[in-house]
Write a structure and sequence with these properties.
Layout (H helix, E strand, L loop, with lengths): L1 H4 L3 E4 L6 E2 L2 E2 L3 H11 L2 E6 L6 H10 L9 E3 H12 L4 E5 L2 H9 L3 E2 L6 E4 L7 H12 L3 E4 L5 E2 L6 E2 L1 H12 L4 E2 L5 H11 L6 E5 L2 H11 L2 E5 L6 H4 L8 E3 L14
Parallel strand pairs: 1-4, 1-13, 4-5, 6-7, 6-8, 8-9, 9-12, 13-14, 14-15
Antiparallel strand pairs: 2-3, 10-11
């Protein structure tokens, strides 16, 4: 724990770590307070693509936490940055929510429902047969298929819900094309997070609730890996993976001296 507390930077997932739906999780207030008191650098890095950093800031504000917009980075922002570097001025057909559309717009990527260069898929409830058919047609006509992240499911207050990869899978199946996924555990997103913090990987920790995105991303990027059991992963499900985090905590509050202890 002392090695963890000595880190200069913390990259934290949000769903299952900071909140669950619209409910702040135990220990989060103490953890954020400790980070500020200790002068740590931190970034809330989420695979969710539907909200902008401003919207995420407002969400935490409603829960009683005041965190500046600059501390948020989403898979939508990572996807837009990736495309702007790969193909400046490109166009895309997009299946997603406003956070994804805004990120693409800010990077100069235009929406195209005639002959797009890319088909981009993120989380959304506005998903139907027409959108699958359009995406399929564009990909068969040469558009490259991009997924904002590899999450198959996501948490909600009513239970698990389909996430990005579940929405991309039908398009992959009917076209025979494999999507490129930008979010965690893609090292691109982790490198950007470290650059935003201004710290080396050895000086940072990745705190998350998912073995298949957060923990493997931390391990492969050289960050100290910390799993919290406040989200989707349980002690039993953790055993299915051939890798493991260095620390397993009940919640992020356990990072704070005196709050709790590792499990």
């Amino acid at each position: 724990m002392e090695l963890l507390r000595a880190k200069k930077g913390f990259i934290c997932d949000m769903d299952g770590v900071i909140y669950h739906g619209d409910t702040l999780l135990p220990g989060v207030r103490e953890f954020v307070g400790w980070i500020y008191r200790e002068g740590k650098k931190f970034l809330f890095l989420t695979n969710a693509s539907g909200k902008t950093p401003k919207e995420l800031r407002q969400k935490l504000w409603r829960m009683g936490l005041d965190v500046d917009e600059g501390h948020f980075y989403t898979s939508a922002l990572a996807t837009a940055k990736f495309l702007s570097r790969q193909s400046p001025g490109c166009s895309a057909y997009v299946i997603g929510d406003p956070g994804l559309f805004n990120a693409l717009h800010d990077e100069g990527i235009t929406i195209n429902e005639i002959d797009p260069d890319y088909v981009i898929v993120g989380e959304t409830k506005n998903y139907n047969f027409d959108s699958i058919q359009r995406a399929m047609t564009y990909v068969l006509n040469g558009a490259k298929l991009i997924g904002t992240n590899t999450d198959l499911t996501g948490p909600s207050e009513t239970g698990m819900i389909p996430a990005c990869r579940a929405l991309v899978t039908p398009i992959e199946a009917v076209t025979g094309k494999t999507a490129y996924y930008v979010g965690k555990p893609n090292p691109l997103m982790m490198r950007t997070g470290l650059q935003m913090l201004g710290v080396h990987s050895e000086e940072a920790a990745m705190v998350g609730d998912r073995m298949d995105t957060d923990i493997i991303a931390g391990i492969e990027s050289g960050l100290d890996s910390v799993l919290v059991l406040s989200g989707v992963t349980t002690r039993d499900s953790m055993k299915r993976y051939p890798y493991r985090p260095r620390l397993v905590l009940s919640c992020v509050g356990d990072v704070v001296p005196g709050y709790g202890a590792e499990v």
